[in-house]
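Standup notes
- DV: blocked on the single-chain target, sequence here:
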Amino acid sequence: MYKVDLPVDQSIEKAVERRRAAETARKAQIFNTRLRVMGLDLDALNQQVQEKKHQQNMERQRDKAFDKMRRIHDEALLQQDIDEREKRAALHADLTQYWATYQRVEDSRDADLNCGMWGAFSITAPGSELGPASMQVFQGEGIGEEQKRREQITKTERDLRTQKEDNERKHIRDKHKEMLVSKELVHQDLRWVQQHALEEECKKAARIALDNYNQALAAERAGKLEEQRRREEKESLVEIWHTLTSDMMTECAEAAERQVEGGRPPQVLTDRWKGMSPEQLSAIHREREAQRLERERQREAEKSQEAAWDLQLLKASREAEEEERRAAKLRREKRIQMDQDNMQLAREQQAYQEYLDKKLYTNKPTKAYFYQFNTSSR
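- DV (later): unblocked, structure below
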């Protein structure tokens, strides 16, 4: 036959190499104690670290932007405050200048009173700011001021005198009214005193009539009470006599018994009963003695029955003690037998352990024996 060079199949070798590489990676993952115990996912952890760093970077940038915005706002507010102060100072300066130029004290209408100026202002400069229309006090004014003041004083005195006369007339009228009112009050007091005297006389007459009526009623009531007292005394004497002569006081035994129809025994009336007869008392004593004897016989019977019960209990307790002693003896024998069995088992166990240690398990494993395990991922 002819020798033919066939191409080598590389797929098998590649498959073997892939399996070898997968086995190596599998061993690296399985035999790594940290990964096998904790089960860490490095890719997920790295991704979390990257996300955390990105988030921190974003927060730092945001804080920087906020700080920059706050500085800008602070500078704007400071500049606005400075501008407002400058405007206020300029406005105050202009206002002060206006007051000094156009609203002087000496230019006011009462400057002659406040500043002590008399007469018209002199106009000397052709271009002066004050003209003839600005003059308020002229020469020649104030003539006859003294005469006017005297007339004003006279008028004031006249008015005061008239007012005083009006007050005096008013005072006289008020005194006249007070006198008339006082007279009217005196007349009213007199009428009231007279009326009060008449009322007192009427009340006195009424009291006298009422006293007479009460005396008559008291006399009538006293007569009725005396009649009632005499009637009660009579009734009391009759009741006392009836009580003294009644069956209750005479202690009649037949009075305390009431006959009953139908042949039944007579019924005793408790409100009339005075006690038992000697025959009844002797019958009661005989019945009581018979009851005492019966009670004595019952006590003797109970004592004999209790003695029999005590004897029975004593016998039962003795039998229970004997049974307890037999049970204790049996338990002691069982415990001794169990101790002997345990000692025998202990000797056998010790002998078996010596056999295992000295004869059976004599070939101890070396390190090479343990190294042959867990060398593959399968």
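- Follow-up: The helical segments are 10-30, 33-38, 42-102, 111-114, 145-244, 247-250, 278-360, 367-371.
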